[in-house]
Task: structure prediction
Amino acid sequence: MPGIQPGTSPTRFAYLGPEGTFAEAALSSAVATGEGTRTPRPGVPAVLAAVRSGEADAALVPLENSVEGSVPATMDGLADGDPLVITREVFLPVAFALAVRPGTELGAVRSVASHPHALAQTARRLAELLPGTTPLPTTSTAAAAEAVAAGEVDAAVCAAIAAERYGLECLEQDIADTPGAVTRFVLVAPPGELPAPTGNDKTSLVAVVTDRTGALLDVLREFAVRGISLTRIESRPLRERLWVYSFSLDCEGHVADARVGEALAALHRVCEEVRFLGSYPRADGRENRVVPAESGDASFAEAEAWLARVRAGRL
Result:
């Protein structure tokens, strides 16, 4: 799989399209205007495929939402196929509007479409505004706006930027059932030089455990004994193997930290498979918890030096 040469920055970006998605807005907040080319792709699998094929240097995809949880297509897409690593995370507040073609009144709306996460986050409000209407899922909120502009559906739940992009009017603003929702996006690239540790980082990975009693406990123990806090853990079924699950994890710290590196090495011993998904700066506004003295790099270095003396017979 083509990769980015060490010391160089990505110049070709793919994102979940079409134009006007929250993903485009998130990419704009992460990458300066005019920095590289940006190409929308019609779905998360296509976005990740662009990086794996070398058509793009990096891609921005949604990973989880503060209300609806993880995005399965992204979780599965990172767990399967050629390895990709997260180099950055972006948190974007999301606000939904009900958009229609100009001149359309609410009473004339017979169909409404959007991404499944957007429909779930606006279900109660849509039921009030459009009783009896069955929402239709699309690959993105902007794809729904595009469908409205093409006359395929009457209304879309989308971002205001998408309504403007496709010449639509917003009948209702801020229709989310739970205001203040935030979506976490990640920028992914082929394996290469990792972002340098900042002291406030996250590390992501996927661990596949065997079907045995205490398997998950063994995974959690490797973090707990080293004073590493988990910020996310989710299970996902392995599609090619019935009743076997993987665990998607985020933990505090960088793989360059002794305690995190040792934990990952230990997982490699006790798990059937471990896929490293990257170490990158934390962007959620929180600070990593204070590392206990016995879990700091200095303590690991001293312990390794002591063991080397023991093995050499220099007690």
Q: What stands out?
A: Residues 297-311 form the longest helix (15 residues). DSSP finds ten helices and 15 strands in the chain. The mean pLDDT is 91. Residues 222 and 263 are 6 Å apart (CA to CA).
